[in-house]
Amino acid sequence: MDATTILEGITITLIGVLIVFGILTILVAILYGLKYIYIRETSKKEAKIEEKEEIEEKQARPKEIKIMEEKTKAQIHDPQLISIITAAITLFNEYKAKKLSKYDMFRDMPELSRILGLAGISFRAELVVSLGGKDQQVTVEEIPGDGYRVHIGNKNYIAQISV
Amino acid sequence: MIGLESLSQLTLGNIVMIIIGLTLVYLAIRHKYEPLILLPIGITAVLVNIPGSGLVDPPYGFLYLVKKYLIDTEIVPLLIFLGLGAMTDFGPMIANPKSLLLGAAAQIGVFVAMLTALLLGFNLREAASIGIIGGADGPTTIYLTVKLAPHLLAATAVAAYSYMSLVPLIQPPVIKALTTKEERRIRMKQLRPVSKKEKILFPIISMIVIGLLVPSAAPLIGMIMIGNLFREAGVVERLRKAASEELMNIVTIFLGLGVGSTMRAETFLTYKTLLVLGLGVVAFASATAGGVLFAKLMNMFSKEKINPMIGAAGVSAVPMSARVVQRLATQEDPENHLLMHAMGPNVAGVIGTAVVAGVFLSMLGG
């Protein structure tokens, strides 16, 4: 055992420990840099997904229907009547879609059906809505500006749809 | 007549070496102690101690050629590193960068063993080769020993691989002695997912950084990172598979044959071999202690506590030491899963050991 060798060994140890910790600390810093990039990318991706979800949610949000009597302009609150009118509008839309799908142009590009409204062409349908086993004769016709005129009995109702 | 001639040349040393070789074979087969490497080493040790085979005789002995052209030239250890890279997932380490420091801390064991070897009368180059056993990294141990102390190759390689398989016996007492029950029960939060981009950038950046700062570590680091890039790039599946399977298997056979060929009675049966084997335990135990104590030190300054046991995985021995940590964790708390957390320091230990080997080579001359 030689003191110089031991001293040299201690020096190598000190330098070695310093270098190993130094290099691995640099790698730690690099990894934190990579982590930052990852988090930034992930948050960007998440923001995009959130934005997409928001748009989808907006599109899927239920439409609000305001129903009032045509003459008095009084808003309808009778749940049974509201049910009949909304069911009639749903049936009417189904009927309209069926009619339009007969034409290739509208089947391939449904958004083109808007031009019918602009051209003053509107649909009208006489339907039967059944509620609680009781049939009700209803006439539905389109009015410009996302609205429907619904005729039940001897009264007319206006249903306005807003998103 | 020829058989009798061979028998008459058989020495007591040869018989002892044949018994040692057969013991390694037994341990590999019966107890599955690093069988991929200890089985070829053991059986080759038996073979080279049968007098008159000529297998290790220059210039054309088969095992002589294997050692001269594949081990002494460092081709095999470097190709093993390529394969290791192709098999290693750096993800847990990238997710928790602090684990790199635990990999560095475990290298303290290398220096403790080196200083102990110096005190026992080994010279600096021998001491460095013995110390590196503490890195628990077979190929690095072979790589460094071939360059610094080739006469110790068999002893250091056998010690490194034997103790790697004995990690489940060596580490638990050290970990338990240095940690409290409460510390062993510390739960760590789940690691974040790691993106493909990070996994691709890491090997490239670390290869450049380490290569520039410790050029002598570049061959080892370079190979492991190239292998890892094969794995993470996702576009060279054939190369990844070749590096981690076919090539890895072939070079492992040559490594076993090459190291085994050095286990001849006249070179292996010395008191130095016994000292190397003893120092191997010191190296493993102090490396484990270094990692655990550093983890405890980190806890003193960190808001988010880490389980100090994961520091023990900094000794490489992938994935054995990480499994030991997992087993100890579930013994204390069956719901505490630390395997992925321990894999971080585990793979960081491989990088740390390669850097230490580079430091030794640059300071002691390769």
Give a brief rundown of this model.
Chain A is α+β, with helices and mostly antiparallel strands and about 160 residues long. Chain A contains four helices and five strands, in the order H-E-H-H-H-E-E-E-E.
Overall mean pLDDT of chain A stands at: 84
The secondary-structure class of chain A comes to alpha+beta
Tell me the total number of β-strands of chain A: 5
Order of helices and strands of chain B: HHHHHHHHHHHHHHHHHHHH
Which runs of chain A of at least 5 residues are low in confidence (pLDDT < 50)? none
What's the rounded overall pLDDT mean of chain B?
93
What does this molecule look like?
The complex is a heterodimer of chains A (163) and B (366). Chain A is an alpha+beta fold and 163 residues long. Helices cover 55% and strands 23% of the residues of chain A. A 5-stranded antiparallel β-sheet of chain A has the order 1-5-4-3-2, with helices on one face. Chain A starts with a helix and ends with a strand. The model of chain A has no long low-confidence stretch (mean pLDDT 84). Chain B has one domain (66-364). In chain B, α12 crosses α18 (271-301) and α19 (320-332) packs antiparallel against α20 (339-364). Chain B is globular, with a radius of gyration of 21 Å. The relative contact order of chain B is 0.19. The interface between A and B is large, with 30 and 44 residues.
